[in-house]
Amino acid sequence: MRAGKVKGKIIDYTLGETKEGHMKALVQFKTEDDEKVMWTGLFHTQGSLDRTLKALIIMGLSTNDLSNMVDGPSNQMLNLKEEFELLVEEQVYKDKENKDRTIYQVSFVNKIGLVGTVTREKAFEKFKEHGIVAALAALGFKKSTTEIPF
Question: How many domains does the chain have?
Fold first, then answer.
């Protein structure tokens, strides 16, 4: 595996929980180098929620019920055919024996050739259209402390 920009296709996805009990989205890619790498999206802060939803929409989100991610690719919720540009980062951590271990994770997912991002207004309309807030409420997320017009 190498850090940097690589191309990859989605091969698996699901939902999970962090050690703290927060929901997370997990998407596994197979890269152009025939290696597997994971993207993780979090939902527990407004910033992480925004980044996660934006990434899922880029990955072809086709439903307004995120809980369907637990079924994985069989529900065709994300685009399994399209190739995406992935920014892979190297992360070094200490294992239980205090030895350095290296993992690679996807930090950003983009459509190939994507030049810009959407405006807040366009994102609002897309989220409203897909019923994302209702889906998150069904998963037990509470209303944000910041005012968002959903």
Answer: 1
The alpha-helical segments, DSSP class H, found in 3-131 are 46-58, 120-130
Q: What is the pTM of this model?
A: 0.72
Q: Does some domain include residue 118?
A: yes
* C-alpha to C-alpha distance for 54 and 57, rounded to whole angstroms: 5
88, 104 Cβ separation under 8 angstroms: yes
| Residue 130: predicted pLDDT | 73
- CA distance linking residue 13 with residue 40, whole number of Å: 10
Closest CA to 41 of 62, 60, 56: 56
Residues of the chain with pLDDT below 50 are: 144-150
CATH number of the domain enclosing 96: 2.40.50
Alpha-carbon span 112 to 89, nearest angstrom: 18
Query: Is 21 a domain residue?
Result: yes
Residue 85 in tokens: 């540009």
Is residue 148 domain-resident? Answer: no
| pLDDT on residue 146 | 46
DSSP letter for 86, please: E
Which residues are registered as beta bridge partners of 96? none
